[in-house]
Amino acid sequence: MDFSLSDEERAIRDTVRSFVVKEVLPLEDTVLRRERAHEPGLHLEELRELQQKARKFGFWGLATPEEYGGMGLPAVVQSLIWTELGRTIVPFRFGGEADNILFYANDAQKEEFLLPTIEGTRISCFAITEPGAGSDAANITMSARQDGDDWILNGEKTFITNGNEADFAIVVAVTDRSLGARKGGATAFLVDRSMGWRSEFIQTMGEGGPASLIFEDVRVPSRNILGEVGKGFELGMQWIGKGRYTIPSHAIGIAERALEMALAHARSRETFGRAIGENQAIQWMIADSEVELEAARMLVLRAAWTVDSGRDPRHASSMAKLYGASMVNNVVDRVLQIHGGMGYTRELPIERWYRQVRLYRIFEGTDEMQRLIISRDLLRGYTMIGL
Amino acid sequence: MNIVVLVKQVPDSGAERSLRADDNTVDRGAASNVINEMDEYAIEEALKITEAHGGEVTVLTMGPAGASDSIRKALSMGPAKAVHIVDDALRGSCAVSTSKVIAAALGGLNADIILCGSESTDGRVQVLPHMLAERLGVAALTGARKLTVDGSTLTIERQTDEGYEVVTASTPAVVSVWDTINEPRYPSFKGIMAAKKKPVDTKSLADLGVDASEVGFAGATSTVLDHAQRPPRSAGQKVVDEGDGGVKLVEYLATEKFV
Ligand SMILES: Cc1cc2nc3c(=O)[nH]c(=O)nc-3n(C[C@H](O)[C@H](O)[C@H](O)COP(=O)(O)OP(=O)(O)OC[C@H]3O[C@@H](n4cnc5c(N)ncnc54)[C@H](O)[C@@H]3O)c2cc1C
Ligand SMILES: Cc1cc2nc3c(=O)[nH]c(=O)nc-3n(C[C@H](O)[C@H](O)[C@H](O)COP(=O)(O)OP(=O)(O)OC[C@H]3O[C@@H](n4cnc5c(N)ncnc54)[C@H](O)[C@@H]3O)c2cc1C
User: Fold this and answer.
1) Where are the beta strands (DSSP E) in chain B?
2) How many Å apart are CA B88 and CA A268, to the nearest integer?
3) Domain-by-domain residue ranges, chain A?
4) Cβ contact (<8 Å) for A11 and B186?
């Protein structure tokens, strides 16, 4: 068993690390200051500029296949990169990406939706969740009624990331009520905002926020169906599957950075005549955090490796998402505690992480849904203990 | 243009660094090792020159086996190949013997320009470029903040405390650079993937015809006998302003030779 990274993996990670240190970290104070004033931390133009800078040395489209100008990286390497990006509070991500399911688009749709999304000239969002259907996504009710060669969409999607900014949405709607979403009753549509849906901003405890998308008799031509009629639910599950290892990869980066801050504070902050790090109460928080952090790293890298090796990644990914999300919540909570009153202020990024990482236990499959998947596969004998 | 860039692996100056208790040398085992920062600027300058004028860049490193990490990193920025001088007898080498070994390795490389950083962040002696030029019998264009190549004529702006000097020489020459000269590129994704396939020629002292007794601890012209932690900072001096605070401050700066 060899836990070391290959030369290439290490070189890619180190390059991302130095890019983050030189180009992204210097923006942190600005981001914190803007967010304190309730403005977006990073403007879209600034994000694009950083992305173009990275593109010059080939860091563009981590998951995007080479024929589309991307890097086509294995999941393990993508995971390492997301961890590096987690080390900064600046909401930076590399450009050249598109929703994984957009690659199922036909040639005309690729021109219209996929390529401009990769290029960054169009912004997509993916919408399956509804006010009445979150964890139970198969229970969606948004209707798509056929009318000649068009479909008429009615209903509401909610909690849609990028829903405020997107100029098109990948929407999963019910095309055959008699079948049920799982059994061929749901279809994915590519719906331009100009076709008539509108969005409403949702305030959250995090920075920025998702949107509700409201569809009232939105007319969508058949040529805008993504994939096949009746295959929408499968596409939706595939979209969500991707986040199962990127989210905890990001969580590892956050926890690394936060724990480093805690170490520095524990060494330098003195109470009762000595560094607080000399007290067992603080030492145990540090030790527990480090153990959980490394355990999460192993689970996440194994989940990514499972993806790369062509195995069914669901079990490993669910464990990684469940544990990674809970780990980062524990670590950030302890790091805040170690910082005392300062940790609670908005001078430091800790309280921001505290608000941000709470989401990780909710979206793209709640803790409970991950547990459901893990235990169900064991109980029905699909997954064996110890394998 | 045939350019050789000298690349040294050093302990990361951003992390905790220490000397070994047994022989007073830099503890390379404990530190996280990186390319000497100034050398990245030398690599960038070499790549820019060959991009504009053609030619090939070779990386030359003297260092333990672990230095191969830094060689790969250097190669991922773009150079075509590397030479790695590895020999157990090299441990403890002083600047004089280091220059002897590197000069011997350069003998076979036929370089028009030998580019290097002005100093390394571990030793900081700043003498190697000059020693090398002396041994090779070529010009030393050191401390450059700008380098222009016109045929076989090299012109640098040598950075000084007061400003800069314009110095010219013809190739071959040793050019050392400061971090003001350019902005080093990031290794590109393609460069990273290509680095593994680039040739790295490993040389021992015997290959270079240098006797082990002339280098390392055996041949060192200077030896570190002892070392100690920097003493903790002593309390500063307080200046109480009684209307003459400004004068007192300047007087203090003058006695400390700051002004
Ligand atoms: C910031 C943010 C961004 C989002 N982005 C998107 C997006 O881009 N696109 C999109 O489609 N959706 C998005 N979502 C929606 C997200 O995926 C859902 O919020 C999530 O799936 C949970 O659904 P819900 O909120 O309806 O909770 P519910 O499903 O109502 O669950 C409520 C609670 O009950 C638990 N629960 C439910 N069923 C069971 C069960 N059978 N057993 C045990 N416990 C159960 C859940 O775990 C949870 O704790 C986003 C959400 C947020 C907050
Ligand atoms: C919103 C807010 C309102 C406040 N209002 C007031 C106010 O009105 N008036 C006022 O006077 N103060 C106020 N405070 C200050 C508050 O009481 C202190 O923040 C608190 O006492 C902790 O002190 P500290 O922040 O200096 O943390 P520190 O004392 O530096 O502690 C840092 C960490 O080390 C731990 N620690 C310290 N010593 C030991 C030890 N010996 N063994 C084990 N662990 C140790 C602490 O538990 C903590 O986790 C307020 C703080 C905040 C954030």
Assistant:
1) 2-6, 9-11, 33-35, 56-62, 81-85, 113-117, 139-150, 153-159, 164-170, 173-177, 200-203
2) 40
3) 7-97, 124-230, 234-379
4) no
pTM to 2 decimals? 0.90
Q: Whose CA is nearest to atom 6 of ligand 1?
A: A160
Q: Report CB contact under 8 Å: A8, B188.
A: no
Reading the block at residue B115, the tokens are: 């580019």
Residue numbers of chain A with a pLDDT score lower than 70? none
The answer to whether B93 and B8 are in contact (CB under 8 A) is: no
Residue corresponding to tokens 């829903």: A163
What is the CATH T-level fold of the domain A234-379, as seen in this structure? Butyryl-CoA Dehydrogenase, subunit A; domain 3 (1.20.140)
ipTM for the assembly? 0.84
A with B: how many residue pairs have Cβ under 8 Å apart?
A: 37
- Residue B12: pLDDT band by 50, 70, 90 thresholds? confident
How far is residue A284 from each of residues A49, A276, A296, A335, A338, measured CA to CA in Å?
A: 43, 12, 18, 12, 11
Reply yes or no on domain A124-230 having CATH 3.40.50.620: no
On average, the pLDDT of chain B sits at: 93
What CATH class does B2-255 carry? Answer: alpha beta
Q: B31 near B55, Cβ under 8 Å?
A: no
**A122 and A75 in contact (C-beta within 8 Å)?**
no
Asked if A15's CB is within 8 angstroms of B186's CB, the reply is yes
Chain B from 45 to 74: CB within 8 A of any A CB:
69, 72-73
Chain B CA closest to residue A56: B188
Residue A95's SS3 state is coil
CA gap A197, A213 in Å, rounded: 7
- Residues of B with Cβ-Cβ distance to A58 under 8 angstroms: 188-191
Whether A272 lines ligand 2, by a CB cut-off of 6 Å, is yes
Q: What are phi and psi of A355, to 5 degrees?
A: -75, -40
Query: Structurally, what CATH architecture does the domain formed by A7-97 represent?
Result: Orthogonal Bundle (1.10)
